[in-house]
Design goal:
Elements lengths: L7 E5 L3 H13 L3 E5 L2 H11 L3 E5 L7 H9 L6 E5 L4 H9 L4 E4 L4 H13 L9 E4 L2 E4 L4 E4 L2 E2 L4 H12 L4 E3 H9 L7 H15 L9 E4 L3 E4 L4
Parallel strand pairs: 1-2, 1-3, 3-4, 4-5
Antiparallel strand pairs: 6-7, 7-8, 8-9, 10-12, 11-12
């Protein structure tokens, strides 16, 4: 079979026995398999390999699997299936709320897992992902988390970067004040509009050529803000 007929699966799990079991099961079902034994290597492999599906353990040695999931969802829509010994409902809800497509509890049956992979593959986005966003003089690398403006790298605080990432992933669309506050500061912050005004001022000062006459981050009066796309 060609590579187009053999979808790639990335297994992020610190247990060698589990990785070996998964490799045997997946390769026998004509998947190409890549492995990572910790979260940092998993993120690097996801960026370089661009797998069609990721199998992710929650208990990794260097960082929580939930953190890996959140990092992946910053730039990727690849189907992610959680494989975990954790059976608590709150663990499953947390993983699904943070972008997992499915949750399988260890130990698992091979036939069931393969069926879930087929379902995840059917739900996958058909278009290629863009990890780098460019508009005007602004360049944002969502994998490396680097930002450049006017030819220079720009340092952003974590909150500033979260706000910028939200605009980048919805470039060209008007984002309401409430939506931005909820996504960046949490569901209980929708009445804290002063946060947004302050941080929008910071973003414009760092990224706009002329912050007093913004051409990237446009105010939609009474509604919200919009990041201009494709200048």
């Amino acid at each position: 079979m060609s590579e187009l007929q053999n979808p790639a699966v990335l297994v992020i799990d610190d247990e060698p026995q589990i990785r070996r079991l998964l490799r045997l099961a997946l390769e026998s079902a004509h998947y190409r398999v890549f492995e990572a034994a910790n979260g940092n290597n998993g993120l690097a492999e996801a960026a370089s390999r661009r797998p069609e599906i990721i199998l992710l353990d929650l208990g990794l040695p260097d960082m929580p699997g939930l953190s890996v999931l959140k990092r992946l969802r910053e730039w990727s829509k690849v189907p992610i299936i959680i494989l975990s010994v954790r059976e608590r409902e709150e663990d499953k809800v947390s993983a699904l709320d943070n972008g997992a497509d499915d949750y399988v509890t260890k130990p698992f049956g091979t036939a069931e897992l393969l069926a879930r992979l087929r379902v995840a593959a059917r739900h996958a986005q058909p278009r290629p992902e863009q990890s780098t966003f460019v508009t005007g003089s602004l360049q944002v690398d969502l994998i490396k988390r680097t930002v450049r403006a006017h030819g220079h790298e720009v340092r952003l605080t974590p909150t500033e970067y979260s706000l910028l990432r939200l605009f980048v992933t919805h470039a060209g669309k008007v984002l309401t004040h409430n939506l931005i506050l909820r996504e960046v500061w949490g569901p209980n912050s929708t009445n804290q509009s002063h946060y947004l005004r302050v941080y929008m001022k910071h973003l414009r000062e760092k990224l706009e050529q002329n912050p007093s006459e913004p051409r990237l981050f446009i105010t939609e009066p009474g509604v919200g803000y919009r990041l201009i796309e494709g200048q």
